[in-house]
Design brief:
By secondary structure, the chain is mainly alpha-helical. It contains 25 helices and 8 strands. A two-stranded antiparallel ribbon has the order 1-2.
Length: 488
């Protein structure tokens, strides 16, 4: 991307003043002549993310040869490089695995036709009002020959896809309610029935795009300039910049670090590292009993219900989004509100490694392996750093984040002490996690900036990768367990 920064004296000498608020350089004045009949759009945002300064994102691809190579391959395959990939570029190892998996799900041989795949992506993203992903797949759906009438609303799509609506909403918001009866209704719907292989493909796509919506909102991803919501033709109103400067992202400085209040966050990382050290020492000294571990899990699960999402207010989806799914009022609900009780999902009884992986690989070859590599990549990814500190073992922290997310979905690991979570994750971080995982459309920049304020943006993106993959695996576990129960 070209950054056009003219010296102050050149702007003064070579610009044409339209008003006291706007200057246009000679080059742009020439391009804007009415007889050309050309309107030049400018981006509404400053770079790929509303939360992360553009210069930090661009710097990654310039200094990391591997990231640059991945970007080039992605562009060659898709004809575009979207803003999600640019932000994920902070972590090229993960990005490579993510792009490989997504490419296989959408474009390689599989049980579902190409237009069905993109339409399911639209349905899944719409559940979280993620217009960015919806618009992306509306374009792809049309490019692969999808019927434009389907885009008028879910009721215009084939009955087979309409029947997937119930599975879509339960997986997105309350996956613990999924039963083998839901699966049976899809597999025994006479002429509109799904095959097991088709259903596995659909489930993977639904969970992929539910969790990708979380990442999109959690990183403040902005639409590309050519997409809906990514540009405007209105002139800017900054006297010291030309239109071309604004369009190239030079019109606004990002004062992220200045706004954080350095005194307030002083010592945040050191306190967290000390807690990790103390917890490790406690692990070495004594091990809690199974009864105590179970009690701590139930306590953490209950406490997670008391964490409210951002302002805890309802987000009403626009008609453009809500037409792609049914029952817009259906959303995330905590397990035990109004007396509802959901049995704990014990990973020791049904796990991804021992059960889900083989089921997916059997019915949709190679995808189980790809998903497993992607889960492992996100979970094990580390640079052994925390902010400015090096040679730090972050495994305890990464495990706490992963297990807290799945705890919110009722999933328990018998060998994990859930008492560690409260020691490592403070309230502002828990609010961010719960909002991004359960109601991502409510995520705000203020929430993003309020946790881990001494950490790098790349570290926060890493957190969002953990949240995305832990959520996807949680949804998959409930769906695959229901399918297994139907099969047996």
């Amino acid at each position: 991307m070209r950054h056009a920064v003219a010296p102050a004296e050149n702007v003064e000498n070579n610009s044409f003043a339209v008003t006291s608020l706007l200057k246009i350089c000679t080059h742009c004045e020439r391009l804007s002549k009415k007889d050309l009949g050309v309107r030049i759009p400018r981006p509404l945002g400053n770079g790929p993310s509303r939360f992360i300064p553009e210069k930090e994102i661009l710097k990654v691809s310039k200094v990391d040869a591997r990231t640059q190579s991945i970007f080039e391959d992605a562009f060659a395959a898709l004809g575009r490089l979207d803003n999600i990939s640019l932000v994920m570029g902070f972590h090229p190892q993960y990005l490579e695995s993510f792009l490989r998996t997504q490419h296989y799900l959408l474009q390689m041989d599989g049980p579902l036709s190409l237009h069905y795949r993109h339409y399911i992506g639209i349905m899944a993203a719409a559940r979280h009002q993620c217009s960015y992903l919806v618009n992306l797949h509306v374009n792809d759906f049309l490019q692969v020959g999808g019927d434009p009438k389907w885009l008028n609303g879910l009721d215009e799509a084939p009955q087979k896809l309409q029947q997937l609506g119930e599975l879509n909403k339960i997986l997105a918001h309350r996956p613990w309610l999924l039963t083998k009866e839901h699966i049976e209704r899809l597999l025994k719907a006479e002429e509109h029935s799904w095959s097991l292989a088709e259903l596995i493909h659909a489930v993977v796509l639904l969970t992929h795009y539910h969790s990708l919506a979380s990442f999109t909102f959690g990183c403040g991803i902005t639409p590309e300039i050519h997409c809906d919501g990514g540009h405007t033709f209105r002139p800017p109103s900054l006297s010291q910049y030309c239109v071309c400067d604004i369009a190239n992202g030079n019109g606004h400085a990002n004062h992220h670090d200045d706004l954080l209040g350095n005194q307030e966050m002083c010592g945040e990382v050191e306190v967290l590292m000390e807690r990790m050290k103390q917890l490790q020492e406690c692990r070495d000294d004594e091990e809690a009993s199974q009864e105590e571990m179970a009690t701590r899990f139930e306590r953490e699960k209950t406490e997670s219900m008391l964490v409210v999402t951002a302002e805890d207010e309802e987000c009403v989806p626009s008609r453009d989004i809500s037409r792609h799914f049914e029952d817009p009022s259906y959303g995330y609900k905590d397990f035990s509100r109004r007396g509802e009780h959901v049995p704990t999902f014990r990973v020791q009884d049904y796990s991804w490694e021992d059960h889900g992986f083989s089921l997916v690989n059997r019915l949709y070859p190679d995808v189980g392996q790809m998903l497993d590599e992607k889960f492992q990549m996100a979970y094990n990814l580390t640079y052994n750093t925390m902010a400015t500190h090096k040679d730090v073992d972050t495994s305890m922290l990464r495990r706490a984040i992963w297990n807290y997310i799945q705890c919110m979905f009722g999933i328990r690991y018998d060998d994990y002490d859930y008492g560690e979570i409260n020691q490592l994750l403070d309230r502002s971080f828990k609010i961010y996690i719960k909002t991004m995982v359960c109601s991502p459309e409510k995520t705000t920049k203020r929430m993003y900036e309020s946790f881990w304020r001494q950490f790098q943006h790349s570290e926060k993106v890493h957190v969002n990768l953990l949240l995305m993959e832990a959520r996807m695996q949680a949804e998959l576990l409930y769906a695959l367990r229901a399918i297994t129960r139907y099969m047996t």
